[in-house]
Amino acid sequence: MTACIVGWSHSIFGKHEGADVESLISEVALQAVADAGLEPEDIDELVLGTFNEGFSPQGFPASLMLSNSEAFRFKPATRVENACATGSAAIHQGLKTIESRRGRRVLVVGVEKMTGLSGADIGATLLKAAYVKEEGEIEGGFAGVFGEIANRYFQRHGDHSGALAAIAAKNHANGVANPYAQLRKDLGYEFCRTVSDKNPYVAGPLKRTDCSPVSDGAAALVLTDVDTALALPKAVVFRSAIQVNDYLPMSKRDILRLEGCGEAWRRALTESRMSLEDLSFVETHDCFTIAELLEYEAMGLTAYGEGARAVEEGWTTKEGRLPVNPSGGLKSKGHPIGATGVSMHVLAAMQLTGEAGDMQLPASELAGLYNMGGTAVANYVSILESLR
């Protein structure tokens, strides 16, 4: 790869009363440029990632970024969307600009304002990322989709509710140290495992603690070519950045194998000449705990049907052989759709440069991250390393 992350910023994720997409963009855009040691006039292109699909009444949002500086006026600005992988799609747009040498410095912002809708409308909006012809009537929206996936997994491999609770408890415990996280509370395994008034079933075997929260928020980063990065205060280089898309209908796939996820990981590790064992940690797309479990298997951490071992034997804790979601993941951090992929790259870069504060792992040399759109339809894997 020929590109680096050289600066970033990140809002707190949660419910932002009175905020809109424009104000959330403004919270992070110039901060990321300044963090890179650059000025707005240094930026060659702007890319905005936002899913929207009814979350915000403002369509055509790309040029909202220009309002943050007169120096941005007349620069190319584009909105990118790829469901819950929208943030990574925006980053890939920036990478292509740099690799084609059409620009040397690209500002990427991911944003979503979700909490302005009712619960029912949020569910209906998210379900647009499914194959509506076949999956549009699944009760419970996207939670219902993953509830059905969890049911199928349990039917094939046995009831692994305990493993899902362990994933939730791990990510909530990790999220306590994340200053940007929406849910900073260590709930413990027993609470996550037990059905209660505060932790009811939501869809199929999935309880509230198995589902990422509805969030508002934004994250931003600056990409440059390597030569430019070498003259800047910090740089995290892409060893690999892979996109793999799979069929949209779940009926055309073995949905329990997340084959697009597995293919993206294989290509990324091959391109970077790495193995899973070389990675210091992984940030993965735990929109629901069953997703993280399936991702263990798809990335090759365990065999298919054995993902529970990874969490039950402590492999994925901060002290384990491959820490997964030391940030708390989407489960604790929150999941503002368009911001998630950018957030994952920002938090990984913070780890690799020793800027992760209380989240910091003792040894962070190589990061892998996986961002998913839909039910492993859009699949993005990045392998990142600090340039110096």
UniProtKB/TrEMBL annotation:
Alphabetical list of Gene3D superfamilies matching this protein: 3.40.47.10
InterPro entries given in the database record: Thiolase (IPR002155), Thiolase-like (IPR016039), Thiolase_C_2 (IPR055140), Thiolase_N (IPR020616)
Residues annotated as domain Thiolase N-terminal: 11-183
Pfam family, one: Thiolase_C_1
Highest taxon listed in the record's lineage: Bacteria
Domain Thiolase C-terminal stretches: 251-385
Membrane-spanning intervals of the chain: none
NCBIfam families hit by this protein: PRK07516.1
Record protein name field: Acetyl-CoA acetyltransferase
Higher taxonomy: Bacteria, Pseudomonadati, Pseudomonadota, Alphaproteobacteria, Rhodospirillales
